[in-house]
């Protein structure tokens, strides 16, 4: 028997000894908070969301309107300020959102990682956003796109409608399909080493622009 096999057997033996004769798992407490104090879309939640996102170093653009033309102008301004004229977008994104851009690639699933890496930005919607944690949730649907297009381009412009902003994680989970490929985004992709040197863009977009609409 190999050393690895011996170690594994030892670990499993100790687990069996700790469980004893009756390894039935005890009931899991479910008395956690299910709802926040505010209804979805409340002004207090939007303020909290903006505070969290900015703390995570995301750029937040607030627009009062929810119409697609206003969102499109905000998207164009955000990308123009970064000298970006090209973006990839999911097939279900309203065309008005990218109508002001010079070059728009509508994803049909054929772009591989190398091709996506040559596109500087992605524009998507979202399904729900959690104010307390500053977390935007994508579900891989027609509005959010497949996961690859939201992870490879360097800049992600994400539209969040005020009506989709909830206060707590349980409320957010109630609004999504757990069988879908969910992506939870809390600020730009970043990590830190043991010296706490922050590096952005390691496993996702280096820049996150959130357009809060409504």
Your description of this structure?
The model has no long low-confidence stretch (mean pLDDT 91). The protein has a 4-stranded parallel beta sheet, sandwiched between helices. The chain has a 4-stranded mixed beta sheet with strand order 8-5-6-9. It has a two-stranded parallel ribbon with strand order 2-3. Strand 2, helix 4 and strand 3 form a beta-alpha-beta unit. It has 214 residues and is an alpha/beta fold.
Structural class: alpha/beta
The amount of helix comes to 25-40%
Q: How many runs of DSSP E, i.e. beta strands?
A: 12
Query: At the first level of CATH, what is the class of the domain at 59-126 and 140-161 and 177-213?
Result: Alpha Beta
Q: What about the largest sheet? A: 4 strands, parallel
Looking at CATH, the homologous superfamily of the domain at 59-126 and 140-161 and 177-213 is NagB/RpiA/CoA transferase-like
CATH topology of the domain at 59-126 and 140-161 and 177-213: Rossmann fold
């Amino acid at each position: 028997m190999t050393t690895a096999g011996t170690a594994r057997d030892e670990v499993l033996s100790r687990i069996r000894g700790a469980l004893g004769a009756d390894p039935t798992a005890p009931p899991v407490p479910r008395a956690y908070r299910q709802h926040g104090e505010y209804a979805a879309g409340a002004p207090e939640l939007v303020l909290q969301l903006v505070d969290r996102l900015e703390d995570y170093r995301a750029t937040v653009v607030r627009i009062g309107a929810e119409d697609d033309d206003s969102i499109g102008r905000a998207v164009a301004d955000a990308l123009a300020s970064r000298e970006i004229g090209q973006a990839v977008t999911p097939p279900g994104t309203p065309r008005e959102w990218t109508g002001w851009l010079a070059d728009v690639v509508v994803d049909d699933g054929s772009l591989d990682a190398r091709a996506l890496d040559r596109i500087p930005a992605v524009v998507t919607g979202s399904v729900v956003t959690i104010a307390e944690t500053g977390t935007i949730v994508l579900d891989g649907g027609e509005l959010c796109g497949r996961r690859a297009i939201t992870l490879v381009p360097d800049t992600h412009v994400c539209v969040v409608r005020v009506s989709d902003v909830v206060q707590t994680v349980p409320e957010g989970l109630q609004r999504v399909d757990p069988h879908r490929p969910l992506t939870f985004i809390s600020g730009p992709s970043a990590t830190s080493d043991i010296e706490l040197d922050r590096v952005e863009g390691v496993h996702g977009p280096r820049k996150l622009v959130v357009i809060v609409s409504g």
